[in-house]
Each structure stands twice: as structure tokens, then as C-alpha cells.
Amino acid sequence: MIRKILIANRGEIAVRIIRACKELGIKTAAIYSEADIGSLHTILADESYLIGPAPSSQSYLNKEKIIQLAKEINADAIHPGYGFLSENSDFIKLVEESGIKFIGPSSKSVEMMGSKTAARSLMQKHKVPIVPGTIEPIKTVSEGLSFADEIGFPVLLKASAGGGGKGMRKVFSRDEFDSAFESTKREALKAFGNDDVYIEKLIENPKHIEVQIISDEFGNYRHLFERECSIQRRHQKIIEESPSAFLDDLTRKAITEAAVNAAKACNYFNAGTIEFLIDKDKKFYFLEMNTRLQVEHPVTELVTGIDLVREQIMIASGEKISFEQKDVQQNGVAIECRVYAEDSSQGFLPSTGKLKLYKEPSGPNVRIDSGVMVNSEITVHYDPMISKLICWGKNRDEAISRSLRALDEYYIGGVSTNISFLKFILNRKEFRESSHNINSVEQKFLKEFEEQTQNISVNENEIAAAILSAYLKSKVKQKVSSDISITNKWRDLLYE
């Protein structure tokens, strides 16, 4: 059994891992940059170590220093969380060679799935449906045009090493192809150090549905059903839910079987996610595999009752998966809202500063995963996510109502947030009917939200501010300076 884990990450995911370790009786070692001195994860961990300056390239991405530290403090294992080094096959290989256990898949599996073209080829061989397109990088414009003509416009040009929406262009005609091809290659080289580009048929207005899988080193594979992540802005997920209201039982069975086959194809073990696009006719296509724990894993945990981080650690300790496939059931509905430090009334500009006021929601079936507290700093150096709100309900309507209620209970001062936009989406007819798709936010919701924002009159703002002021003075009993902005159900207003 693992005795001490070094957590190579920060923020809410580091806190999440620390909590799982404490329940298992495992010691934890946190690392932190100069920008994270005194952060919640450093306080909760048994040991904390300064790893370097604020820029992640000098701290959380310093592979050699992290591994050397793990050796010096006699850590048995390293948990990477998500982001940073979690899907870096070079880092995982170094960890493997050091004799320290990596809590995640093997470097070989990560490498196999790291190239989108290689992954597409592998999936095709194992009869996992892929979006029509090329399985090798395109070398020239004429070669690309030939493929595009074959599968028909519109097409997507995508970086082979891409992710997070970077290195991707929609091309609707032959005339656009040349410039799109060159700009995609330039962006790919800049973002990923690799300018390989391939073509996919553009699936218009699909949903994004992914399947959580977990497997051990004894060849046991399980799926934990699906999550729907179609609410995205700039290709970043904002709201996730499980199960998807769009899937019928037949499609659910087919897509979960395909996900398990995808994991088997790369000899995968530990937690992973197979992402799919699914069209209006419920035809689904492999998009990519995330070879790590996902940000949105709590919705799966609330619906299935399975602690994914605990399973990850036990599998890395040499144990078998603790449950059979028949034991995994979908119970109720869970919805996750990502609360970001950004000003939704000003084009979602990043909002940095100190959290001078921070009160989280609570109540039945409300879970908060966060890595902040009062006086925490939201800096330009890292992801601006403040916390994740995950609400469970017996059905989808109850989960939505509970999410709205809980969002109203947030009190965040010092930075602006996207809470008003999250509530706006949860109230949209398309979301409630699950008729939305991955383009709904960009093509519809943002415009409607902006119009609604402009329609709030000065008087309404003044009334809202006055009510809020009285409430804070009587309930919070905290002196609040005039530069604190409060997030409440009337949008992000300046208090007093």
C-alpha cells in the first residue's frame, strides 16, 4: 500500500486528492509556487514544499525538480491531478524510471493517445467509430483539398497534438482552405511544438458526450456511464451533467461499450475518459481520450457513488477495481457548474485579485470542490476557476433547481465571477429541454445574455444594491470595503 503521495498540482484538484488520501490514511506532500504560498492545499497537506517561482514552467511543470523532491521526501507515488504534467508521457516515463509509482496510466498508453492522428488510427483498427477524415497528417494543401473534396465541406483542420480548442479551424469551402491550412499549422507549432495537421468532417451542431472508464493492471475494465459536456465557451466546458438527457438506453449501451473497447485498444489502466461527438441522429464518433482524471469527475461520483480518486490510488497500489460492472448504476442526476473569476458583464475578461469575501453554498446534496478561502489570490498565472458546484437531484429538474438555489448562496468579494451567466444558462429553455449543442453558447446564449444585461435599468441595479447592502450588514457582519464587488442574483454589482 502506498504510504506517502506527492501531489504534483495545486488548487481544488490538489485539495480533492488530499481529502481522499486522508480517508485512506495516506500521508500527503503538497508542492507550491511562490504565488501559492499559504494556499488551501498547502495548509491541508501533511507536508508542503516550495517548488519554484510563479510561472508554471519554473514550478508545476519542472519535471526533474518534482521527481527529485519526491525521492528526497520518500514519497511512494505521485498524483498529477489534471492539467500540468498529468498527460505528459515524458514526465510519466521519468517517474516510472525513478521507481516511484505514477497514479495514472502508463507512459506508453499516454503516448499512444497523445497524437490525435495516431489515436484515430488505433480506434479505427478496433472498430471504435471515428469522425470521417484522415488518420495521417496532411503534408500539402493539394493533398488536404483532395481529402476535403472526398468527405465534403465543411471540414475541420486540427492539430495532431492539439487540445483545448487550440490549433483548430472550420473550413466551409475550397477558397478558404489554403489560408486556413497555413494558419492552423502556425498555431499548432506555436502551441504544441508540432505543426502536424489533419482533416475531419465537420459534424454540425453535435453534442459532446464522454464516458468515464476505469481499469486496473489485471485487465479489468469498467465504465461509469456518461457525462454530457455540451455547454462550452471557446471550447472550454462550463456546465457538465450526468446522465445525459439526450441518450436513450440503446445508444448508452453502444457508446459505453465503444469506450471500453477504446481503453482496451491502448492497454489502458487507471481512470480515463473517452470523448465523443454525437449528432442529432444519435450517431457518435470518437473525439479523443483524456488519459487522466477529469475536472468534471464529481458528477460521475455523485450519480454512481464511486470515489474515483480512491479507486485511482488503490489501483496504483496494486489492487483490483473494487466493484463489478453490474454494481455500477446511475442514480439520479448531477450537474456541475464551474465558477470562474471572470467578468461576465465585460466580455468575460479575467478578474484577478484577493478574495476579500468568500462564502460557499451548502445544504442537502450540494458539493463544493474548491481550493480557495478568504484572502486567497486569483492570479494571472493559473486557471481562474474558483470552485466547482456540484448538485444532485432525484431527477434533472430537481438538480437544476438545486443548482440555481446554490448559485444564489455564493458570496464572493474581491473579484467578478461568471455566476450570473451560469444561472442564465440553467434557465434557458434549450438547456432544460436538453436540445442544446456544443455551439449553443457561442451562437445563441452569449448574445441573449448580453441583451438581458443591457436591459437591466439603473433603478433595478440601485434597488438590488440597497437590498444586498442591508443583507450583508445584518447577516455577514463583516466590514466590507468599498472596492469589494459582490456576486449575487442581480449580477455582479458594486456594493455601496
Describe this protein with a few key phrases.
five-stranded parallel beta sheet; globular; 24 strands; 36% helix; single chain; disordered C terminus; alpha+beta; eight-stranded antiparallel beta sheet
Overall description:
This protein has 496 residues and is of the alpha+beta class. Helices cover 36% and strands 26% of the residues. The chain has an eight-stranded antiparallel β-sheet with strand order 13-12-9-10-11-14-21-19, with helices on both faces. Strands 3-2-1-4-5 form a five-stranded parallel β-sheet, sandwiched between helices. Strands 7-6-8 form a three-stranded antiparallel β-sheet.
The global form is globular
Q: Approximately how much helix is present in the residues?
A: 25-40%
Question: What does the average pLDDT come to?
Answer: 92
Radius of gyration (CA) equals: 23 Å
Low-pLDDT stretches are 476-496
Quantity of strands, as a count: 24
In a nutshell, what does this entry contain?
Helix content is 36%, strand content 26%.
List the topology elements.
Elements lengths: L3 E4 L3 H14 L2 E7 L6 H5 L2 E6 L10 H10 L4 E3 L9 H10 L2 E2 L4 H8 L1 H10 L15 H11 L3 E9 L2 E6 L2 H19 L4 E5 L5 E9 L5 E13 L2 E7 L6 H17 L4 E9 L5 E7 L6 H8 L3 H9 L16 E8 L1 E2 L5 E2 L2 E2 L2 E3 L6 E5 L6 E2 L6 E9 L2 H13 L2 E3 L5 H8 L2 H4 L7 H15 L3 H19 L8 E4 L2 E4 L2
Parallel strand pairs: 1-2, 1-4, 2-3, 4-5
Antiparallel strand pairs: 6-7, 6-8, 9-10, 9-12, 10-11, 11-14, 12-13, 14-21, 15-16, 17-20, 18-22, 19-21, 23-24
Helix pairs in contact: 3-4, 4-5, 7-8, 12-13
